[in-house]
Amino acid sequence: MNYEDILYEVRNAAAWITINRPQKMNAFRGQTCDELIHAITRAGYDRQISVIVLAGAGDKAFCTGGDQSAHEGQYDGRGTIGLPMEELHNAIRDVPKPVIARVQGYAVGGGNVLCTICDFTIASEKAQFGQVGPKVGSVDPGYGTAFLARVVGEKKAREIWYLCRRYSAAEALAMGLVNAVVPAEQLDAEVQKWCDEITEKSPTAIAIAKRSFNMDTAHQSGIAGMGMYALKLYYDTEESREGVRAFQEKRKPDFRRYAK
Ligand SMILES: CC(C)(COP(=O)(O)OP(=O)(O)OC[C@H]1O[C@@H](n2cnc3c(N)ncnc32)[C@H](O)[C@@H]1OP(=O)(O)O)[C@@H](O)C(=O)NCCC(=O)NCCSC(=O)c1cc(O)c2ccccc2c1O
Fold it and tell me: Name one Pfam family in it (predicted).
């Protein structure tokens, strides 16, 4: 597969996969997800690779989730909602190698979900995290909600989703969403250090450990697949479209008329 939306580079035994859409704050469209699935699977089953790094190009954003300019009712790709999100999430979970999120800027919406699912997140002091779904007419009915609660606890996960606040790297570290925070200029060196430490270890032991960690929450994959059908129905409503329009028009959404 030729990549247009991502970059693929091998450094020592680490595959660095970078979302390369800085003009869209590294938001993903359908094609981006397909390329990410391909690259993660390629690295995951390449014997020369021991660890995968997921990154975003430029200074501003790791990833800001679904591309709101490629979103009208549903997104522009394949799958139930026009984005093969559940396949992408499963690819990160299923590859027998650790995946590290390298976060230098915004990890927002689906970008924050990617961090949540990755085995590790290493962040610059300038990174910011948060969910935006209920502000823009979206929600992740799978790992982004249920698995987030496993990572940061139920109360914090509900706060993150219901209030849609932004959290600094230090706050993310304190809540267990991030493994390490370093000054921006040390980020790549720190990530490479983690990669090199992993590379020294037994790949089979790590692969079994990863599967074993996944086992406890494996049912969430089924919930996510089913949840996509609910999300599709939601995306077809005026309530969801109001969220997307408000973001595009840079105004506050008016959701009150849809109160249940
Ligand atoms: C990221 C921000 C917090 C940045 O705010 P700031 O005020 O600094 O900058 P601007 O808001 O002015 O943005 C600058 C520039 O970037 C464009 N942009 C930012 N994000 C996106 C995006 N996601 N898509 C397209 N374009 C984006 C923005 O329009 C500006 O462009 P200009 O041309 O005007 O300069 C802030 O931008 C922000 O909060 N962004 C919201 C991002 C968003 O809505 N993301 C989608 C959330 S939904 C989602 O990710 C998602 C969808 C699904 O369907 C899922 C399904 C299943 C599981 C998970 C899913 C999922 O997570």
Answer: ECH_1
